[in-house]
Specification:
This protein has 1 helix and 15 strands; from the N terminus they run H-E-E-E-E-E-E-E-E-E-E-E-E-E-E-E. With 262 residues, the chain is mostly beta strands. Strands 1, 2, 3, 4, 12, 13, 14 and 15 form an 8-stranded antiparallel sheet that branches. A 4-stranded antiparallel sheet has the order 7-6-5-11, with no helix packed on it. 29% of the residues are buried.
C-alpha cells in the first residue's frame, strides 16, 4: 500500500514538473519570439481586418521592457535592437495609455512628415499614390464592439459599404493599399513635423479612421512612438473571425488562414 502511494506521489511530481516546464517554455516563447494579437478596429483596413488574429514577430527589432507582459522586463532601451524599415506593420505600446496598438511605420528618426490634401509627404516630397478601385465590405456590425464600418456612401444595413482605394509606395519601395473617404478630414492636412531621435511616426492604412501619429495623445492619437515601445512586427494572420468572437469558428474567413501581410 505504501509503495502504491509512493508511486502516485512520483506520478504527481512528474506531472507537475512537466507542466512547469511547459509553462516556462510558453512564457519564454511569448516574451522573446512571438505574441498573439487580435485586431479590434478598422484602422488598418484593408491590410488588416477587424477580427484578424495574428502573431507578432518579437525578434524583429530586439527586446525592450515592453517585450514582457506589463513591461516587467528589466531592460533599459532595446537589447540587440534593430531599426525598423519604413512600411513595416508594427505593434507597439501606446506612449500614454499603455494599450497595444498596430499601425504602419512611416517615419524614422530625422524624417520630415506632413499630410497635404490627403497625400503623405515625406522629406519634402509627396509619396507615390495611385488610385486602385474601391474597397467593398458589408455594412454590418464588426468585432466584439459591434461597430459599423465608415463608408463613402450611405448603404442600408447589410448593403455594400464603399471606400476609395489607392496604392501608396514609399521611397524605399514598400507598397500597400490605403483607404480614403475624404480629403478634408482633420488628419488630411497637417503641419510638417520632424521625427525626434529615438522615435518613429506611424499611420493607419484606413486614413480617415485612424488615430495615429498625426494626433497627439491629448487629441486621442499616439504622437511619436518611442523605439523602446515597439513590441514587434506583424507578418502573418493566423486566422480571422468575421463575427463578434474569435471562437465563433463558423464566422472564420476562409481566405485569411496564414495570410501574409505587408
Amino acid at each position: 500500500m505504501a509503495s502504491t502511494r509512493t508511486h502516485r506521489r512520483q506520478d504527481w511530481g512528474e506531472a507537475l514538473r512537466t507542466l512547469s516546464v511547459a509553462l516556462l517554455l510558453a512564457v519564454a516563447v511569448r516574451t522573446f519570439l512571438i505574441q498573439p494579437f487580435w485586431i479590434p478596429s478598422g484602422s488598418m483596413k484593408e491590410t488588416l481586418l477587424v477580427g484578424d488574429f495574428l502573431f507578432v514577430n518579437k525578434f524583429a527589432y530586439g527586446w525592450s521592457r515592453w517585450s514582457c507582459p506589463w513591461g516587467l522586463c528589466p531592460i533599459d532601451g532595446r537589447l540587440w535592437g534593430a531599426l525598423p524599415e519604413r512600411g513595416d506593420i508594427v505593434v507597439f505600446r501606446h506612449p500614454a495609455t499603455g494599450e497595444d496598438y498596430v499601425k504602419r511605420l512611416i517615419g524614422l528618426p530625422g524624417d520630415r512628415i506632413r499630410m497635404r490634401g490627403g497625400v503623405l509627404h515625406l522629406n519634402g516630397q509627396p509619396v507615390d499614390l495611385r488610385p486602385s478601385g474601391t474597397f467593398t465590405e458589408a455594412y454590418l456590425p464588426q468585432g466584439s464592439a459591434r461597430t459599423l464600418p465608415r463608408c463613402a456612401n450611405r448603404p442600408r444595413p447589410g448593403g455594400a459599404c464603399l471606400v476609395e482605394r489607392a496604392v501608396e509606395t514609399l521611397p524605399g519601395g514598400a507598397s500597400y493599399p490605403v483607404l480614403n473617404i475624404t480629403d478634408l478630414g482633420r488628419g488630411d492636412t497637417t503641419q510638417e513635423v520632424v521625427v525626434p531621435p529615438g522615435h518613429v511616426f506611424v499611420l493607419g492604412d484606413n486614413r480617415d479612421n485612424s488615430l495615429d501619429s498625426r494626433f497627439a495623445p491629448a487629441q486621442g492619437g499616439v504622437g511619436f512612438v518611442p523605439l523602446e515601445n515597439l513590441i514587434g512586427r506583424a507578418d502573418r494572420v493566423l486566422f480571422s473571425s468575421a463575427g463578434s468572437s474569435l471562437w465563433a469558428f463558423w464566422t472564420w474567413r476562409g481566405d485569411r488562414f496564414l495570410h501574409a501581410v505587408h
